[in-house]
Amino acid sequence: MKKILKWTVRFILAVLIIAGFCAYPTLKNGYSMYKEATAKCSVHDKVKEIRSQENYISIDEIPDSFKNSLPQSEDRRFYYHFGVDPVAVIRAAYNDIKAGAFVQGGSTIDQQLAKNMYFDFGKTMDRKAAELFVVHDLEADYSKDEILELYINKAYFGNGCYGLQSASNYYFGVAPSKLNQTQADELVYTLKCPNAYNPAEQENGLTDAVYSAAA
Fold first, then answer.
1. Whole-prediction pTM value?
2. Burial of 12 by CB count in 10 Å (0-12 exposed, 13-18 middle, 19+ buried)?
3. Contact 29/21 with Cβ under 8 angstroms?
C-alpha cells in the first residue's frame, strides 16, 4: 500500500512539473502582456477611470434582483474563490480538449473584468494568462463587492450599452434601481452574448428561439 501511495505521489509530482514546464512560455508571454498594459495605465488608475464615467453607479444603486442573479449566472463561486475558479477551469479545459477547440469559457467575473479593462476579445492562452496577473491585483486591493460593482459598470450589454445604467435606460427606460425581476434577469442573460441575447433581440424573436433551443 505504501509503495502504491509513493508511486502515486511521484506520478502527480511529475505531471505537475511537466504541466508547469509546458505552461511557462504562456505565463511568460502573459506577464509581458500584463506589464505592457499596466505600464500605460495601472490597475488603480484604470479603476479610477471607470469610476469617473458619467453612467457609473455604486453597488448600493444596483438592485438586489440583479446583484443576486448575476453571480448565479456568470460565476457561482464568485464570493468564495480567489479570482480564478479551479472547478470551472477544469471543466472548461475538459470540454475544450474534447472538442479540439475553445468551446467553453471558465472565466470568473474577475477575469471578465480584467479582459474588459485591458484586453481584446480574441481567445488566446497568452491573453488568458495576462488576465490572471490583473486578477491578482484586483483581488489584492479590492473587495468582492467592489469587483462586482466595477464589472457591472464595465460590462457590455449590446447596442452600444456599456454598464448597467446605460443598458437599463436604453432597453427599459428606467434607472437600474427601478428594474423588476424579469427585466433584471433579461439583462443578466444578455451578458452571455450581448449582440444576440439582449432584450431588443428578444422582442424580435431571436432570443426566444435561443431560450427554446436551450430548454
1. 0.79
2. exposed
3. no
